[in-house]
Design a protein that fits this description.
The structure is a single chain. The chain has 565 residues and is an alpha/beta fold. The protein folds into 3 domains: 382 residues, TIM Barrel; 44 residues, Oligo-1,6-glucosidase, domain 2 (Alpha-Beta Complex), CATH 3.90.400.10; 88 residues, Sandwich (Immunoglobulin-like), CATH 2.60.40.1180. It is 29% helix and 19% strand. It has an 8-stranded parallel beta barrel. It binds magnesium ion. The site of magnesium ion has 5 residues, from loops.
Length: 565
Amino acid sequence: MKHWYKDAVIYEMHVKSFFDKNKDGIGDFKGLIEKLDYLQNLGITAIWLLPFFASPLKDDGYDILDYYAINPEYGTLRDFKKFVRECKKRNIKTIIELVVNHVSDQHFWFQDAIRNGEQSKYWNYFIWSDTQEKFKDTRVIFNDTEKSNWTWQPDVKKFYWHRFFSCQPDLDHNNPRVVRSINKIIKYWGEIGVDGFRLDAIPYLCVKEGTSNENLEETHNVIKNWRKYLDSEFENKIFLAEANKWPHDVAQYFGNDDECHMAYNFPLMPRIFISIRKENRNPITEIMENLPKIPENCQWALFLRNHDELTLEMVTDEERDYMYKEYAKDPKMRLNLGIRRRLAPLVENDRRIIEILNSILFSFPGTPIIYYGDEIGMGDNVYLGDRNGVRTPMQWSPDRNAGFSLANPNQLYLPPIMDPIYGYQSLNVENREKQPASLLNFMKKMLATRKKYKSFGRGTTEFLKPKNNKILAYIRAYEEEKILCIVNLAKTAEFFELDLSTFNGHKIVEIFGQSIFPKLEQQKYVFMMQPHSFFWFEIKKSDIDDKINLLSQSAVSATGQMQNK
Ligand code: MG
């Protein structure tokens, strides 16, 4: 279907973390295929796979050794093709990572360049300099580990440019040959059948002296080139932009519907967490109302947590201090400019908060992304280095290795979570499936409900402004359909009035239970809400069903049966 990404619910995962079929302690494609029924049953419609290409794994696969090969630990190309076929059978789309900004220093392009120096045909694939003086205005992103964007290469006696780890030399996208090399990669995986590409770290593709080397016009032209190529070769395949930038910069990556189809709403995410701690809707509504308008075919991608630290780049210094104070008291929980925690531990495993966070994720304008394990409320391990604490094995059952693998426990790529609150002995899919009121079953219900209403993926959004600013209220609308969403951000019960006068004469129906609430008749409608709770209502025209209901009710009253109760 055209624009499938608008109605999608994406599940983000790493093949190594999901299920290990060949018992070597590392998840693989054969294992993932076995778990596709679980994902289909959960209700997701697309899988975003973290990097699985051949890699020395110095940066969890974002350091690519070969764009045309699968890391043998995860399986073979045949396994991958079967995975894509099995997804198609279940109507699940596949989105893969295209790490285009840089390669591993082991990649043959870089190896050839340092072996043959300026004679190498790949020399100009990279950016070289005799000094570290060039591009002085460019910030260092991984400021916990890297001191400079330049690293000395002794074989060729030059510095090379890198925006991320020094083992990841940046590709020079000012060079059209590099741009064309990426087109070939797009064609290869597109023909295998993947439905989308997540373009990693795209604000940094091109360089230009005297600039910050971010969001350059040259970079946008490169993306336009890829998009043109994608559309000329395929139908209904998409680009998802990873641009961790302020809204007006991110929106540039949609172009004029000629760059990326989707881009993450990075600035929204930390503000959801701020709003909840402050019990005040303003941080959310301010950022949402300042979002630039985007082309009609484009879509925001929404997330609460992902495989990286909860990034605080797109907040003010004051907001960052606030987030650290509220969500990462222990310095171990911090990394770069962010917080390396999963969703449940971030909110102290408060089920009500987890629910309202997900209600926002599933009802805000955009396409929601669930990070694997967050649907069961998995915990993290801040004692593991870098971002590994949020990348531990999926917890399937209370069996050995969380049911993830039959390998020797010492052989696992990372140990499963074993603490008393989040440990796999009690927190696992098997147990959660058996409990009707579990988070997992709540999530299934949310997913199923979202699918029934086109407004969530495609509709307009209007924020209502009740006097009580602990209440976040908004209307999503698409064609005739209208959904009223309300969140109580406070840890106290609240009442408030909503002006719903534009819907006079309509009825409101609670979406999950289908309970019919009193008709909208006066100007103000009073609501009462439990602490940290949410409501979704469908605003419906009073229709013929009502008349039939009314008639049958009056018939009952007439026979006097009601009065005798
Ligand atoms: Mg394995």
